[in-house]
């Protein structure tokens, strides 16, 4: 097997791995805000912007980890990260390295990619309807 054949063969599986790892990291932001783990000084009220963001991160991240409703969830989370960037990070500085918004930008575009590419073969969505993934 040459390199092109190998990478082509593994591309759908790597999409699943990208989705799972990104969602786990993203979900950790929600567990921090909503469940207090890992421990943080952040404990927002549920009906505040950070509280709603935490719920989206926790629930949306969990749905993406297992690959359920992946496309619409990824699209919503992509929008959340774009919103978070412009509300919380961009006002601090034009440069993402200075305003702390690098992760928000990356999450935004990774989730946008998943919304269009689908969840990959290792997902509940793929098991429910093979042709629609």
Give the structure's gist in a few sentences:
72% of the residues lie in helices and 0% in strands.
Keyword list:
single chain, mainly alpha, DoxX family protein, 133 residues, 0% strand, 72% helix, 6 helices
Task: Characterize the structure shown.
By secondary structure, this protein is an all-alpha fold. The protein has one domain. Helices cover 72% and strands 0% of the residues. It is built from six helices and no strands. Helix 1 runs antiparallel to helix 2 and helix 2 runs antiparallel to helix 3. The chain is globular and about 50 Å long. The model has no long low-confidence stretch (mean pLDDT 94).
